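Anyone have C-alpha coordinates for Protein CLP1 homolog? Sequence:
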Amino acid sequence: MVEEEHTQEFILEKECELRFEVESKGQKVELELKSGLAEVFGTELVKQKKYKFSNGSKVAVFTWHGCTLQLTGRTEVAYIAKETPMSIYSNCHQALEELRKKADEDDLPGPVVMIVGPRDVGKTTLCKILLNYAARMHRRPTYVDLDVTRAQICMPGCIGAIRVERQLNPAEGFHVQSPLTYHFGKLSPNDNIDHYNIAVTELAKHSKLADNKKTKFSGTIINTPAWVKGESEKLILHAIKSFKVDAVLVLDQERLYNELVKIKPESLKAILIPKSGGVVAKSQLQRDEIREIFIKEYFYGGRIPLYPHSFEVKWSDVNIFKIGAPLLPSSCMPVGMKVEDNSTKIVNITPSLSILHHVLCVTFAQSAETIFETNLAGFVVVTNVDVDRQCLTLLSPQPGPLMHNHLILSDLQFMDTH
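Reply: yep, here.
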Protein backbone atom coordinates (compact mmCIF):
# COMPACT_ATOMS: atom_id res chain seq x y z
CA MET A 1 0.00 0.00 0.00
CA VAL A 2 1.45 3.39 -1.02
CA GLU A 3 1.42 6.05 1.69
CA GLU A 4 -0.34 9.26 0.68
CA GLU A 5 1.79 12.38 0.50
CA HIS A 6 1.46 14.66 3.51
CA THR A 7 0.20 18.07 2.38
CA GLN A 8 -0.14 21.25 4.43
CA GLU A 9 -1.54 24.61 3.35
CA PHE A 10 -0.62 27.89 5.04
CA ILE A 11 -2.26 31.28 4.58
CA LEU A 12 0.12 34.08 5.49
CA GLU A 13 -0.86 37.65 6.25
CA LYS A 14 1.37 40.53 5.12
CA GLU A 15 4.88 40.69 6.63
CA CYS A 16 4.63 37.16 8.05
CA GLU A 17 6.96 34.22 7.56
CA LEU A 18 6.49 30.47 7.17
CA ARG A 19 9.37 28.58 8.79
CA PHE A 20 9.94 24.89 8.24
CA GLU A 21 12.73 22.36 8.69
CA VAL A 22 13.56 19.14 6.86
CA GLU A 23 15.71 17.12 9.24
CA SER A 24 15.14 13.42 8.59
CA LYS A 25 17.65 11.71 6.32
CA GLY A 26 16.30 10.93 2.87
CA GLN A 27 13.28 13.17 3.45
CA LYS A 28 12.22 15.72 0.82
CA VAL A 29 9.68 18.51 1.01
CA GLU A 30 8.13 20.46 -1.88
CA LEU A 31 7.20 24.11 -1.46
CA GLU A 32 4.68 25.72 -3.81
CA LEU A 33 3.38 29.29 -3.94
CA LYS A 34 -0.34 28.95 -4.68
CA SER A 35 -1.26 32.65 -4.65
CA GLY A 36 0.14 36.04 -3.71
CA LEU A 37 3.82 37.01 -3.54
CA ALA A 38 6.56 35.45 -1.41
CA GLU A 39 10.34 35.10 -1.22
CA VAL A 40 12.92 32.77 0.32
CA PHE A 41 15.96 34.64 1.65
CA GLY A 42 15.25 37.45 -0.81
CA THR A 43 14.65 35.25 -3.87
CA GLU A 44 11.20 35.73 -5.39
CA LEU A 45 9.17 32.52 -5.71
CA VAL A 46 7.49 31.70 -9.01
CA LYS A 47 3.80 30.92 -8.65
CA GLN A 48 2.81 27.26 -9.17
CA LYS A 49 6.46 26.18 -9.33
CA LYS A 50 7.56 23.40 -6.96
CA TYR A 51 10.78 23.92 -5.01
CA LYS A 52 12.32 20.77 -3.52
CA PHE A 53 14.19 20.87 -0.20
CA SER A 54 16.06 17.89 1.25
CA ASN A 55 17.33 16.88 4.69
CA GLY A 56 19.21 19.56 6.59
CA SER A 57 17.18 22.40 5.05
CA LYS A 58 15.93 25.19 7.30
CA VAL A 59 13.73 27.51 5.27
CA ALA A 60 11.93 30.80 5.90
CA VAL A 61 9.33 31.98 3.35
CA PHE A 62 8.50 35.66 3.81
CA THR A 63 5.69 37.70 2.27
CA TRP A 64 5.33 41.48 2.18
CA HIS A 65 1.71 41.44 1.00
CA GLY A 66 0.24 38.06 1.95
CA CYS A 67 0.18 34.68 0.20
CA THR A 68 -0.94 31.05 0.28
CA LEU A 69 1.72 28.34 0.45
CA GLN A 70 1.60 24.57 0.20
CA LEU A 71 4.08 22.08 1.65
CA THR A 72 4.14 18.47 0.43
CA GLY A 73 6.18 15.99 2.45
CA ARG A 74 7.11 15.44 6.08
CA THR A 75 8.66 18.39 7.94
CA GLU A 76 10.22 18.33 11.39
CA VAL A 77 8.47 21.57 12.15
CA ALA A 78 6.38 24.10 10.20
CA TYR A 79 4.83 27.24 11.65
CA ILE A 80 3.92 30.85 10.82
CA ALA A 81 5.86 33.64 12.54
CA LYS A 82 4.51 37.16 12.73
CA GLU A 83 7.64 38.72 14.24
CA THR A 84 10.54 38.94 11.77
CA PRO A 85 13.50 41.31 11.25
CA MET A 86 12.88 41.51 7.48
CA SER A 87 11.96 45.20 7.55
CA ILE A 88 15.32 45.94 9.20
CA TYR A 89 17.16 43.80 6.61
CA SER A 90 15.25 45.60 3.85
CA ASN A 91 16.33 48.95 5.28
CA CYS A 92 19.95 47.76 5.19
CA HIS A 93 19.48 46.91 1.50
CA GLN A 94 17.97 50.33 0.79
CA ALA A 95 20.91 52.05 2.47
CA LEU A 96 23.35 49.99 0.38
CA GLU A 97 21.41 50.80 -2.77
CA GLU A 98 21.73 54.53 -2.08
CA LEU A 99 25.50 54.06 -1.68
CA ARG A 100 25.63 52.16 -4.98
CA LYS A 101 23.84 55.00 -6.75
CA LYS A 102 26.30 57.50 -5.25
CA ALA A 103 29.24 55.30 -6.30
CA ASP A 104 27.85 55.16 -9.83
CA GLU A 105 27.52 58.94 -9.99
CA ASP A 106 31.04 59.55 -8.62
CA ASP A 107 32.70 56.65 -10.49
CA LEU A 108 33.88 55.05 -7.23
CA PRO A 109 33.78 51.46 -5.91
CA GLY A 110 30.48 50.40 -4.36
CA PRO A 111 29.93 49.74 -0.64
CA VAL A 112 31.84 46.93 1.08
CA VAL A 113 29.81 45.38 3.90
CA MET A 114 30.90 42.70 6.35
CA ILE A 115 28.51 40.50 8.35
CA VAL A 116 29.87 39.38 11.73
CA GLY A 117 28.49 37.55 14.74
CA PRO A 118 28.73 34.33 16.77
CA ARG A 119 27.77 30.89 15.52
CA ASP A 120 24.18 30.19 14.41
CA VAL A 121 22.81 33.74 14.20
CA GLY A 122 22.03 33.75 10.46
CA LYS A 123 25.09 35.48 8.93
CA THR A 124 24.91 33.45 5.71
CA THR A 125 21.15 33.99 5.50
CA LEU A 126 21.55 37.76 5.78
CA CYS A 127 24.24 37.64 3.07
CA LYS A 128 21.83 35.78 0.79
CA ILE A 129 19.06 38.31 1.42
CA LEU A 130 21.28 41.32 0.66
CA LEU A 131 22.75 39.63 -2.43
CA ASN A 132 19.34 38.63 -3.78
CA TYR A 133 17.88 42.09 -3.23
CA ALA A 134 20.87 43.57 -5.07
CA ALA A 135 20.40 41.11 -7.96
CA ARG A 136 16.72 42.07 -8.15
CA MET A 137 17.90 45.66 -8.69
CA HIS A 138 20.05 44.40 -11.60
CA ARG A 139 23.24 44.86 -9.61
CA ARG A 140 26.19 42.46 -9.79
CA PRO A 141 27.70 42.34 -6.28
CA THR A 142 30.73 40.33 -5.24
CA TYR A 143 30.15 37.75 -2.53
CA VAL A 144 33.14 36.90 -0.34
CA ASP A 145 32.96 33.92 2.00
CA LEU A 146 35.65 33.85 4.70
CA ASP A 147 33.97 31.06 6.68
CA VAL A 148 36.14 27.96 6.24
CA THR A 149 33.80 25.66 8.18
CA ARG A 150 31.23 25.42 5.39
CA ALA A 151 31.19 25.39 1.61
CA GLN A 152 28.92 28.06 0.20
CA ILE A 153 31.04 28.73 -2.88
CA CYS A 154 33.99 26.37 -2.52
CA MET A 155 35.33 23.38 -0.59
CA PRO A 156 35.35 23.62 3.23
CA GLY A 157 38.75 24.69 4.46
CA CYS A 158 39.01 27.36 1.75
CA ILE A 159 37.90 30.96 1.31
CA GLY A 160 36.58 32.38 -1.93
CA ALA A 161 34.66 34.99 -3.90
CA ILE A 162 32.13 34.99 -6.75
CA ARG A 163 30.13 37.53 -8.74
CA VAL A 164 26.39 37.22 -8.11
CA GLU A 165 24.62 37.94 -11.39
CA ARG A 166 21.14 36.63 -10.60
CA GLN A 167 18.94 35.61 -7.71
CA LEU A 168 20.00 32.45 -5.92
CA ASN A 169 17.95 29.29 -6.35
CA PRO A 170 16.10 28.89 -3.00
CA ALA A 171 16.65 25.12 -2.91
CA GLU A 172 20.17 24.96 -4.37
CA GLY A 173 21.98 28.00 -3.02
CA PHE A 174 24.70 29.88 -4.85
CA HIS A 175 25.21 29.50 -8.59
CA VAL A 176 28.96 29.00 -8.54
CA GLN A 177 30.73 29.79 -11.78
CA SER A 178 34.48 30.49 -11.93
CA PRO A 179 34.97 31.14 -8.20
CA LEU A 180 38.16 32.74 -6.96
CA THR A 181 39.39 30.34 -4.26
CA TYR A 182 42.35 30.28 -1.87
CA HIS A 183 43.65 27.36 0.19
CA PHE A 184 43.62 27.30 3.99
CA GLY A 185 43.14 23.60 4.64
CA LYS A 186 41.69 23.69 8.17
CA LEU A 187 38.23 24.17 9.66
CA SER A 188 39.02 27.01 12.07
CA PRO A 189 41.04 30.18 11.40
CA ASN A 190 42.58 29.80 14.86
CA ASP A 191 44.30 26.57 13.78
CA ASN A 192 46.79 28.70 11.82
CA ILE A 193 46.06 32.41 12.13
CA ASP A 194 49.09 33.55 10.13
CA HIS A 195 48.20 31.39 7.14
CA TYR A 196 44.52 32.39 7.33
CA ASN A 197 45.40 36.10 7.30
CA ILE A 198 47.70 35.61 4.29
CA ALA A 199 44.85 33.89 2.42
CA VAL A 200 42.46 36.73 3.33
CA THR A 201 44.98 39.32 2.11
CA GLU A 202 45.44 37.57 -1.24
CA LEU A 203 41.69 37.08 -1.74
CA ALA A 204 41.06 40.76 -0.99
CA LYS A 205 43.78 41.81 -3.42
CA HIS A 206 42.42 39.79 -6.34
CA SER A 207 38.65 39.88 -5.70
CA LYS A 208 38.68 43.68 -6.11
CA LEU A 209 39.46 43.41 -9.80
CA ALA A 210 36.17 44.67 -11.20
CA ASP A 211 35.61 43.27 -14.68
CA ASN A 212 33.02 45.92 -15.57
CA LYS A 213 31.35 49.03 -14.21
CA LYS A 214 28.29 47.17 -12.93
CA THR A 215 30.48 44.98 -10.72
CA LYS A 216 32.50 47.96 -9.52
CA PHE A 217 29.48 49.98 -8.38
CA SER A 218 27.61 46.98 -6.94
CA GLY A 219 30.00 46.55 -4.04
CA THR A 220 30.86 43.54 -1.90
CA ILE A 221 29.08 41.45 0.76
CA ILE A 222 31.45 39.56 3.09
CA ASN A 223 30.52 36.55 5.22
CA THR A 224 32.78 35.73 8.18
CA PRO A 225 33.53 32.79 10.50
CA ALA A 226 31.76 32.57 13.85
CA TRP A 227 33.05 35.17 16.30
CA VAL A 228 34.66 33.67 19.40
CA LYS A 229 35.33 35.87 22.43
CA GLY A 230 38.99 36.74 22.82
CA GLU A 231 40.04 35.07 19.56
CA SER A 232 38.33 36.74 16.62
CA GLU A 233 38.83 40.49 17.04
CA LYS A 234 42.25 40.55 15.33
CA LEU A 235 40.99 38.35 12.49
CA ILE A 236 38.01 40.65 11.94
CA LEU A 237 40.21 43.77 11.99
CA HIS A 238 42.63 42.21 9.51
CA ALA A 239 39.76 41.40 7.13
CA ILE A 240 38.32 44.92 7.55
CA LYS A 241 41.68 46.43 6.61
CA SER A 242 42.32 44.00 3.72
CA PHE A 243 38.93 44.55 2.05
CA LYS A 244 38.65 48.25 3.02
CA VAL A 245 35.27 47.59 4.61
CA ASP A 246 32.85 50.52 4.84
CA ALA A 247 30.32 49.04 7.27
CA VAL A 248 30.01 46.08 9.61
CA LEU A 249 26.62 44.57 10.42
CA VAL A 250 26.82 42.86 13.82
CA LEU A 251 24.20 40.17 14.27
CA ASP A 252 22.75 39.64 17.75
CA GLN A 253 25.92 40.23 19.77
CA GLU A 254 26.09 43.43 21.81
CA ARG A 255 29.45 42.49 23.29
CA LEU A 256 31.06 42.17 19.85
CA TYR A 257 29.38 45.39 18.71
CA ASN A 258 30.80 47.34 21.67
CA GLU A 259 34.25 45.80 21.17
CA LEU A 260 34.21 46.86 17.52
CA VAL A 261 33.08 50.37 18.40
CA LYS A 262 36.18 50.70 20.61
CA ILE A 263 38.78 49.33 18.17
CA LYS A 264 37.37 50.03 14.70
CA PRO A 265 38.70 52.77 12.40
CA GLU A 266 36.78 56.05 12.70
CA SER A 267 35.55 55.86 9.11
CA LEU A 268 33.98 52.42 9.65
CA LYS A 269 30.29 52.21 10.51
CA ALA A 270 29.19 49.46 12.91
CA ILE A 271 25.48 48.61 13.11
CA LEU A 272 23.87 46.18 15.56
CA ILE A 273 20.91 44.30 14.08
CA PRO A 274 18.76 41.47 15.46
CA LYS A 275 18.83 37.87 14.30
CA SER A 276 15.74 36.10 13.03
CA GLY A 277 13.73 34.06 15.51
CA GLY A 278 13.84 31.23 13.00
CA VAL A 279 17.60 30.70 13.36
CA VAL A 280 18.27 27.25 14.83
CA ALA A 281 21.49 26.12 16.51
CA LYS A 282 23.16 23.09 14.92
CA SER A 283 24.87 20.25 16.75
CA GLN A 284 28.40 19.22 15.83
CA LEU A 285 26.98 16.07 14.23
CA GLN A 286 24.70 18.16 12.02
CA ARG A 287 27.63 20.36 11.01
CA ASP A 288 29.70 17.34 10.07
CA GLU A 289 26.82 15.86 8.04
CA ILE A 290 26.23 19.13 6.17
CA ARG A 291 29.96 19.42 5.39
CA GLU A 292 29.97 15.84 4.10
CA ILE A 293 27.03 16.65 1.83
CA PHE A 294 28.81 19.74 0.43
CA ILE A 295 31.97 17.76 -0.36
CA LYS A 296 29.99 14.94 -1.96
CA GLU A 297 28.06 17.39 -4.12
CA TYR A 298 31.33 18.86 -5.42
CA PHE A 299 32.15 15.48 -6.99
CA TYR A 300 28.72 13.90 -7.54
CA GLY A 301 26.43 16.91 -7.94
CA GLY A 302 23.16 17.71 -6.24
CA ARG A 303 19.89 18.03 -8.14
CA ILE A 304 21.83 17.57 -11.38
CA PRO A 305 24.10 14.51 -10.99
CA LEU A 306 27.78 14.64 -11.90
CA TYR A 307 29.97 11.70 -12.83
CA PRO A 308 33.49 12.08 -11.39
CA HIS A 309 36.52 10.22 -12.65
CA SER A 310 39.02 7.98 -10.89
CA PHE A 311 42.57 7.68 -12.19
CA GLU A 312 46.10 6.96 -11.07
CA VAL A 313 49.05 9.33 -10.91
CA LYS A 314 52.68 8.47 -10.21
CA TRP A 315 54.31 10.05 -7.20
CA SER A 316 57.03 11.34 -9.47
CA ASP A 317 54.47 13.26 -11.57
CA VAL A 318 53.12 15.41 -8.74
CA ASN A 319 54.46 17.66 -5.99
CA ILE A 320 52.44 17.57 -2.77
CA PHE A 321 52.90 20.36 -0.25
CA LYS A 322 51.51 21.14 3.16
CA ILE A 323 51.46 24.48 4.94
CA GLY A 324 53.01 24.62 8.38
CA ALA A 325 55.44 22.43 10.26
CA PRO A 326 55.49 21.48 13.96
CA LEU A 327 57.48 23.69 16.30
CA LEU A 328 60.66 22.28 17.76
CA PRO A 329 60.68 22.16 21.59
CA SER A 330 62.78 24.92 23.12
CA SER A 331 64.87 22.21 24.82
CA CYS A 332 66.06 21.04 21.39
CA MET A 333 67.40 24.45 20.42
CA PRO A 334 70.99 25.58 21.00
CA VAL A 335 71.46 28.01 23.87
CA GLY A 336 70.49 31.55 22.85
CA MET A 337 68.52 30.55 19.74
CA LYS A 338 64.81 31.16 19.43
CA VAL A 339 62.25 28.65 18.15
CA GLU A 340 61.43 29.40 14.51
CA ASP A 341 57.79 30.05 13.66
CA ASN A 342 56.94 27.44 11.05
CA SER A 343 53.21 28.22 10.76
CA THR A 344 53.57 29.36 7.14
CA LYS A 345 56.43 27.13 6.11
CA ILE A 346 55.80 25.29 2.83
CA VAL A 347 56.82 21.65 3.20
CA ASN A 348 57.20 19.21 0.30
CA ILE A 349 55.91 15.83 1.51
CA THR A 350 56.38 12.29 0.26
CA PRO A 351 53.07 10.46 -0.35
CA SER A 352 52.20 7.82 2.23
CA LEU A 353 49.16 6.08 3.71
CA SER A 354 48.70 9.10 5.99
CA ILE A 355 47.17 11.12 3.11
CA LEU A 356 44.54 8.48 2.28
CA HIS A 357 41.02 10.01 1.99
CA HIS A 358 42.45 13.53 2.28
CA VAL A 359 41.33 16.35 0.00
CA LEU A 360 44.13 17.76 -2.14
CA CYS A 361 43.87 21.28 -3.53
CA VAL A 362 45.01 21.64 -7.13
CA THR A 363 46.78 24.99 -7.44
CA PHE A 364 47.62 27.13 -10.44
CA ALA A 365 50.97 27.87 -8.77
CA GLN A 366 54.01 27.09 -10.90
CA SER A 367 56.34 26.74 -7.91
CA ALA A 368 56.26 26.32 -4.14
CA GLU A 369 57.26 29.98 -3.71
CA THR A 370 54.03 31.21 -5.36
CA ILE A 371 51.55 28.94 -3.53
CA PHE A 372 50.26 31.62 -1.14
CA GLU A 373 49.61 34.19 -3.85
CA THR A 374 48.00 31.79 -6.34
CA ASN A 375 44.37 30.71 -6.40
CA LEU A 376 43.11 27.15 -6.77
CA ALA A 377 42.04 25.26 -9.89
CA GLY A 378 39.98 22.60 -8.09
CA PHE A 379 40.05 19.65 -5.72
CA VAL A 380 40.72 15.91 -5.76
CA VAL A 381 40.52 13.19 -3.11
CA VAL A 382 43.08 10.45 -2.49
CA THR A 383 41.11 7.18 -2.62
CA ASN A 384 44.09 4.79 -2.68
CA VAL A 385 47.82 4.87 -1.94
CA ASP A 386 49.88 2.11 -3.55
CA VAL A 387 53.23 2.26 -1.78
CA ASP A 388 54.76 -0.60 -3.75
CA ARG A 389 53.96 0.90 -7.15
CA GLN A 390 54.33 4.48 -5.85
CA CYS A 391 50.97 5.53 -7.31
CA LEU A 392 48.00 7.51 -6.01
CA THR A 393 44.41 6.94 -7.07
CA LEU A 394 42.51 10.23 -7.22
CA LEU A 395 38.80 11.05 -7.39
CA SER A 396 38.38 14.09 -9.64
CA PRO A 397 35.50 16.03 -11.24
CA GLN A 398 37.26 15.76 -14.60
CA PRO A 399 39.25 12.98 -16.30
CA GLY A 400 43.00 12.66 -15.93
CA PRO A 401 45.71 13.54 -16.37
CA LEU A 402 45.93 16.43 -13.91
CA MET A 403 46.22 19.80 -15.62
CA HIS A 404 48.48 21.06 -12.82
CA ASN A 405 50.93 18.97 -10.82
CA HIS A 406 51.31 21.11 -7.69
CA LEU A 407 48.91 19.89 -4.96
CA ILE A 408 48.32 21.15 -1.42
CA LEU A 409 47.34 18.77 1.39
CA SER A 410 44.21 19.69 3.34
CA ASP A 411 43.18 18.45 6.78
CA LEU A 412 39.77 17.77 5.26
CA GLN A 413 38.89 14.12 4.64
CA PHE A 414 36.21 12.46 2.52
CA MET A 415 35.31 8.75 2.43
CA ASP A 416 34.07 8.00 -1.07
CA THR A 417 31.24 5.52 -0.47
CA HIS A 418 29.15 6.47 -3.48
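The two ends are 30 Å apart (CA to CA).
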